[in-house]
Design goal:
Elements: E1 23-28, H1 37-53, E2 58-65, E3 70-71, E4 74-75, H2 76-83, E5 99-102, H3 105-109, E6 114-117, H4 124-131, E7 140-143, E8 148-151, E9 154-157, H5 158-166, E10 170-174, H6 179-183, E11 188-193, H7 208-217, E12 222-227, H8 230-253, H9 257-278, H10 284-289, H11 291-303, H12 305-316, H13 320-328, H14 335-349, H15 358-368
Parallel strand pairs: 1-2, 1-6, 2-5, 6-7, 7-10, 11-12
Antiparallel strand pairs: 3-4, 8-9, 10-11
Bound molecules: nicotinamide-adenine-dinucleotide (NAD) and SN-glycerol-3-phosphate.
Length: 380
């Protein structure tokens, strides 16, 4: 098994067990980030174009594992394969004729060497159980999942779990990336965190996993920057969802732009300090300089689903679970559960930060403990 801290077993790619020297891409997930699933479906549409462009590196077919469900009386996979769109999670966006939807995870993984994980974190563990033992040790993975996994005093980003459980190298991709805007080809940036040898200070674009994933995702309108910080990129994506919930409360209360800017600033500091406190390989500049850091906080606090549902919680006085169902229609919220996971972790592990993490704590209290939204500023 490879170990991935700042270092990993650095496979240099091609010459795979499938007998081909070309990378075979499988997208595991098919939601709103399909561009990347809706990211899954949005990501599928970006990746589908790039495998054709970089045909010397990639096999032309992109498989997409789809959690099978009924769509207007037909299996969703059949609808996707007939129309080359995913009307359930990413309406009106062509995915590319070379994307094949597959409901059987084992079949989707056959011959796969480049695994793109893009599903709500709520479904990750079950999918991972179905993947174990079915992946070539030459394969590599990238996680686009924005969340953290907590067990008692242990907290992990998803790329680390993929690395540990499947024994393959895993990168992270995260940024200011509202899926529909990416799918519509509106200019966005994203950050790719790749494994590197300990103490690496060179050009991250030269690292082996950057040479695989950057050609798959980078386009003129979806611009990828590479950093040697897998965990930092994953943590930014996870923790900004808590801040976006807080921003939604501010909107619901009608408190205006100064309050929202304060929430973004305080949230940025909590994300950075939390990551540096518990994940020693993370780099402060990832939070302050990259799309996955400050830029994703801004876009999520302006236009994300977490913000939208949290605003409705205040205005309609309903719990997030009810609003998630009625407003998102099958898409999933990550912010409230991430606040719960972080709360459980901090309760078990404690913190050396003076005053703790009061914004993260306030979001947990409002979502799960019935605290009033106005109390969000009480300990800031
Ligand atoms: N949508 C975005 O704008 C966006 C942007 C960047 C990152 N992300 C991240 O990408 C990840 C995926 O988000 P998304 O927006 O694509 O998903 P989503 O919120 O659209 O959720 C729908 C997905 O969940 C799947 N699903 C539903 N029930 C399931 C089950 N029982 N088992 C397995 N899968 C099931 C559906 O098949 C579909 O793929 C998340 O971590 C999210 O934070 C999303
Ligand atoms: O819609 P949200 O709140 O899940 O955020 C989507 C993306 O993560 C924004 O980068």
């Amino acid at each position: 098994m490879s170990t991935q801290t700042n270092g990993t077993t650095m496979t240099n790619g091609p010459q795979h067990a499938n007998g081909s020297d070309k990378e075979r891409v499988v997208i595991i997930g098919s939601g709103n980030w399909q561009v990347l699933s809706t990211l899954g479906s949005a990501i599928a549409s970006v990746a589908a174009k790039n495998v054709l462009l970089h045909h010397e590196l990639f096999h032309p077919e992109v498989k997409m594992w789809v959690f099978e469900e009924d769509y207007e009386g037909k299996p969703l996979t059949r609808v996707i394969n007939e129309t080359h769109m995913n009307p359930r999670y990413l309406p009106d966006i062509p995915l590319g004729d070379n994307v094949t939807a597959e409901p059987d995870l084992g079949k989707a993984l056959q011959g796969a060497t480049a695994l793109v994980f893009v599903m709500p974190h709520q479904f990750f563990r079950k999918a991972l159980d179905g993947i174990k033992g079915k992946v070539s040790q030459n394969a590599r993975a990238v996680s686009l999942i924005k969340g953290v996994d907590v067990h008692g005093t242990k907290i992990q980003a998803y790329a680390t779990i993929v690395n540990e459980e499947l024994g393959i190298s895993c990168s992270s991709l995260s940024g200011a990336n509202i899926a529909t805007e990416v799918a519509e080809g509106k200019f966005s940036e994203s950050t790719l965190g790749v494994p590197s040898p300990d103490g690496f200070e060179g050009d991250p674009d030269t690292l082996p996993d950057a040479r695989l994933w950057k050609p798959l995702f980078d386009t003129k309108t979806f611009s990828i920057s590479v950093v040697a910080d897998v965990e930092g990129v994953g943590l930014c994506g996870a923790l900004k969802n808590i801040v976006a919930v807080a921003a939604g409360f501010i909107d619901g209360l009608g408190w205006g732009s100064n309050s929202k800017a304060a929430i973004m600033r305080i949230g940025m500091n909590e994300i950075k300090d939390f990551s540096l406190e518990y994940f020693p390989t993370t780099r402060a500049e990832t939070f302050l300089e990259q799309s996955c850091g400050i830029a994703d906080i801004i876009t999520s606090c302006l236009g994300g689903r977490n913000r939208k549902v949290a605003e409705a919680m205040v205005k309609e006085g309903k719990p997030f679970q009810e609003l998630e169902e009625s407003m998102l229609k099958g898409q999933k919220l990550q912010g409230p559960e991430t606040a719960l996971h972080v709360h459980e972790f901090l309760a078990a592990r404690g913190t050396k930060r003076p005053g703790g993490y009061p914004l993260f704590d306030a979001v947990w209290r409002i979502c799960y403990e019935g605290a009033k939204p106005e109390s969000i500023i009480d300990k800031l």
